[in-house]
Amino acid sequence: MPELPEVETVRRMLEPVIGGRRVLGIEHDDPRKYRRTDLAVGRRVRRLRRRGKFLLFDLGELEMLVHLGMSGSLRLDEGTHTRVRIELEGATVFFNDPRRFGRLALVRRGDYREFPTLARMGPEPLSRAFTARGFHASLQMTKRAVKTALLSQEPVAGLGNIYCDESLWLARVNPLRPAASLSADEARRLHRAIRRVLRRALELGGSTLGDGVYLRPSGEPGYFQIEHRVYGRAGEACPRCGAGLQRVVLGGRSTHFCPVCQPPGRS
Ligand SMILES: [Zn+2]
Predict the structure, then answer these.
(1) How many structural domains are present in the chain?
(2) Would you say residue 126 lies in a domain?
(3) Measured by CB atoms within 10 angstroms of the end CB, which terminus of the chain is less buried, N or C?
(4) How far apart, in whole angstroms, are the C-alpha atoms of residue 198 and residue 194?
(5) Does 2 qualify as catalytic in the annotation?
(6) Are residues 143 and 115 in the same domain?
């Protein structure tokens, strides 16, 4: 699933192409999934913003929200799984979505009632609003495992399975630990690790896995997968201590960690 680095890479590449252009039409055949698209016609895209894993086309008093779901991508070339064509003056953007989990909706600016995850979303991890102290306080308020809490988007925005596993490994925190059990020092390490992992992933254009689902709008892959330390590496040696990396399923998601560097108790 595209996470913050992938969605932000898409945003950075598309904004110069579509910023300032007027929407001429939006074509699709699923009005339940792609909602109120007629409202965009004739409006100019002022900016393309991102919040967590959502893209927000700023159309003035309206916003067009796009969530790429499991396998969606916004591309400048048409694909066999194009579900939506966004026609702009002098440019066309294609929303490709083989598995059809993506969504798109026109809403009044800031009205995210149809998207509760967005309405409750925590701070952007690379912004000043994301502080170690606030992060620790937020983790203290949940009974969930720390990884589950991160996936909820509430303590911090934008992390999915890959960047959770990589950040927890870098911070030496076990993903199954109750979030509320993290000490201030552990929360600080995790805060730093999240920012470091995301910055590096952004530099490399995100992660393209073997399924080739995520590609940049130009069709190029990202390269952060080369630097994955634990994600998808169960059975390989931990790059820090040499122990065998493990995989468990937590809340239905594969979770990768080092049983030695990330012990079940405080570290
Ligand atoms: Zn290790």
Answers:
(1) 2
(2) no
(3) C
(4) 6
(5) yes
(6) no
